[in-house]
Amino acid sequence: MSEVAGHSQMDFALYEGRAQIATETEKLMQAMLDRYGTGIYVQKVTLQNALPPDQVAAAFDDAVKAKQDRERQKNEGQAYANDVVPRARGMAARLMQEANGYNTEVVQRAEGDAARFRSILVEYQKAPGVTRDRLHTDTLREVYSNVSKVMIDARAGSNLLYLPLDKLMQQAVGATAGTAAGVPVTPVPTDSSMGPTTVDPRSRDNQRSRDREGR
């Protein structure tokens, strides 16, 4: 036993090599008994316990704990990798699908815009003036659809006409809702709270002339 253990390292003899040391000891012991002609047959050798010397027992215990901690951390890291890697692959696949969908959407939209532009170009070549006026009208309709107030400059007399479209739109929405509900709706009066209206300068002059004649 001393010979076999003496040819092994301490860690090997204390832990993973105990069964191998027992087997080698059994073979060596049987060979010695056979050489001496004792007639003894060794059935089995069991290494029941192996302890380090007392002087280094604490150091060996620390080494064992460190090895156990290493194996535990290795297992935890492997479990974390098994959890993170499939999730990352799934996320990557989802992002790829979203990117492909966005790519297809952008390409189709660009192709549609190009086809629409080509069709407009054909019509413009046939009738430039009509097409230009139509594009101008469509642009104004698109812009003013999001505007609640419109200021129009009346060229004659430099009067500024104010259209209270926000009030009119509210009245139209209320009328639509009232009609849908079967309730009569009273129209909103156009008083001074809706903004200043346009006054014709000639009407003011005629009124002043009548006032002078009355005096």
Chart the SSEs and their pairings:
Blueprint lengths: L1 H5 L3 H5 L3 H19 L20 H70 L1 H17 L5 E5 L4 E5 L1 H17 L19 H14 L1
Antiparallel strand pairs: 1-2
Helix pairs in contact: 4-5
Point out poorly predicted stretches: 187-204
Please outline the major beta sheet: 2 strands, antiparallel
Instruction: Give me the secondary-structure category.
Output: mainly alpha
Number of helices: 7
Number of strands: 2
Q: SSE string, helix = H, strand = E?
A: HHHHHEEHH
- Average pLDDT: 76
Q: For the CA atoms, what is the radius of gyration? A: 50 Å
Q: Helical content, roughly?
A: 55-70%
Oligomeric category: single chain
Distance between the termini: 147 Å
Q: Proportion of β residues?
A: under 5%
Taking strands numbered 1, 2, ... along the chain, how are they ordered across the largest sheet? Answer: 1-2
What general form does the structure show?
A: rod-shaped
Number of domains: 3
Report on this structure.
The relative contact order is 0.04. By secondary structure, the chain is mainly α. The protein contains 7 helices and 2 strands; from the N terminus they run αααααββαα. A two-stranded antiparallel ribbon has the order 1-2. Mean pLDDT is 76; it is low at 187-204. The protein is rod-shaped and about 135 Å long. The longest helix has 70 residues, at 57-126. The protein folds into 3 domains: 2-50, no CATH class; 65-137; 147-198, no CATH class.
How do you describe this structure in short?
By secondary structure, the chain is mostly helical.
